[in-house]
Amino acid sequence: MSTEQEPGQRTIRCLVAKVGLDGHDRGAHVIARAFRDAGFEVIYSGLHKAPDEIVQAAVQEDVDALGISILSGAHNTLVPKIVGGLKEYGAFEDTLIIVGGIIPEEDRPGLKEEGVAAIFGPGASMQETIDFVRENAPER
Q1: Which residue segments constitute the domains of the chain, with CATH numbers given?
Q2: What is the DSSP string of 21-67?
Q3: 23 close to 74: Cβ distance less than 8 angstroms
Q4: What is the value of pTM for the model shown?
Q5: Per-residue model confidence as pLDDT tens digits over 5-29
Q6: How many whole angstroms separate alpha carbon 84 and alpha carbon 37?
């Protein structure tokens, strides 16, 4: 698949979010730009967002996909709070949740059990991530 949006292809709304105290946002900016170049409508949360701020933004913006960027090591605490908040607002079923960052292999199954659809670590290709979102974002 191409990184560009095909004619007639729906526009996917995606929130790229930085959660917690993690101040490293280069990866979030790179994926946000790749998503935009692929024809996605992208909202970027900015740094140091609390889980409830990310949930509010996802609900208010009615996003199809939520990309959580986290490098702080707090993924087992913060990501479940976001998933729980989306469930509380009834937005979980309509939102594809992906995580990017340094996530140890032993933590990945627990995050997927929480509701994370995919985890993209260092070395994941932009095309792989774009294709995954295109193929798995909920139809509205």
Answers
A1: 21-62+71-119 (3.40.50.280)
A2: T----HHHHHHHHHHHHTT-EEEE--SSB-HHHHHHHHHHHT-SEEE
A3: no
A4: 0.92
A5: 566 678 999 999 999 887 788 889 9
A6: 31
